[in-house]
Amino acid sequence: MGTRVVGYRYCFEVKISPRGKDRPKGRIIGGKGRKPFISIYTPKATIDWEKSFAAEVKLLGLNVPEEIPLDVAIVAVFPRPQFMQRRSKRDGSLLGGWLERSYLHSSKPDADNVAKIVLDALSDHFEDSRVAVLTAHKFIAALDESPRVFVRVQEASSSTSADVIADYQLEACDPEDPNAPRSVGPRW
């Protein structure tokens, strides 16, 4: 094993409108005297987005050390829809009660598909199987904000599963709260 990198962290932002990874498509090829078979392919829009994102990252010179587990955080800022930009003719305020700030994006594409397309676009720099911790956030842009994808790649901490579970339980599960989630499943 080579030199171990401690405390590796790299952050970058790509000014590109985020999207989710499309599902693979299939088509039947053959017939008329030949045995038909199904050809599976990735949609062109997905391939084009991955190439554009990868080209921008290549210009940044991302250099991820080999053989360390990675913690990747992705923040996708989607374009603000037209209905959230409409203003009153009378006083110029935003209609519909919308504010100028950003909002959490809770519709399609799914956060896991956004993470998949970003990680696949970064495949020239590291294998996505090395990602031990993955965090994805989706936002709708603020009124004065442009769409973009922010990525942080860092060395994953060497905590144990018990430590991580204990941290989550401390954050979210109050033992005094009757509505708090409880453990289910077999007790060994």
- Total domain modules: 1
Alpha-carbon distance between the two ends: 37 Å
Q: Spell the H/E element sequence.
A: EEEHEEHEEH
Strand content: 25-35%
Name of the level-1 CATH class: Alpha Beta
Q: Which shape, going by the Cα principal axes? A: globular
Helix content: 10-25%
| Multimeric organization | single chain
Rounded radius of gyration (Å): 22 Å
Q: Which sequence of strands runs across the widest sheet?
A: 1-7-4-6-5
What is the number of E strands? 7
The overall pLDDT, averaged over residues, is 84
Uncertain stretches of 5 or more adjacent residues? 1-5
By secondary-structure content and strand pairing, the structural class works out as alpha+beta
CATH architecture: 2-Layer Sandwich
Number of helices: 3
> What is the CATH topology assignment?
60s Ribosomal Protein L30, Chain: A
